[in-house]
Structure prediction request, 170 residues.
Amino acid sequence: MKLPPTRRPGVSEVIATLMLVVIVVGAALLVFDFVGGLLASFTAGGPSNLVTTTSVLSVPGTYDASGIISFTITDRASSDIIGVTFSCPAQFNSATCASPAPASVPLTADFNDAAVGAANPLPVGSTASATGLVESSTSFTAGTPYVIIVQITFKSGSTSAIVANVQSIS
Prediction:
């Protein structure tokens, strides 16, 4: 005599398939939301940290109280740059990296032969340069890095500070 098949308790195949589809769709929505938010943070709002600088301090000989500092600033952000200021450490005679007295002209970033500013913004994708004579209260040593803060102001109103390790060469 054959016994009728017994039914095991559990979830039917249809319900299990529906639950699996709901879980996969939910996971896909979470991944989409994360990636969408991540991409929006790169493209929307103010500029990102895509401003690059290169710099060098040329010191005559191995030690000297003066040197020539050179910067290039490239705007790869999402907004034009309308201001660039430099802050030099205490070893420099000027906190604005200004040239020696009597001129005492602060170091400025130039684009199209004029200082970067509201009237002469640095467009996205462009490069500005700054070169000037600087003096030390003691002396500069070739091969020593010096930290200079480059403060960037964007047309959108946001600002960014870049810490530049300026390598000194002879």
User: Anything to note?
Assistant: The two ends are 103 Å apart (CA to CA). Residues 11-44 form one domain.
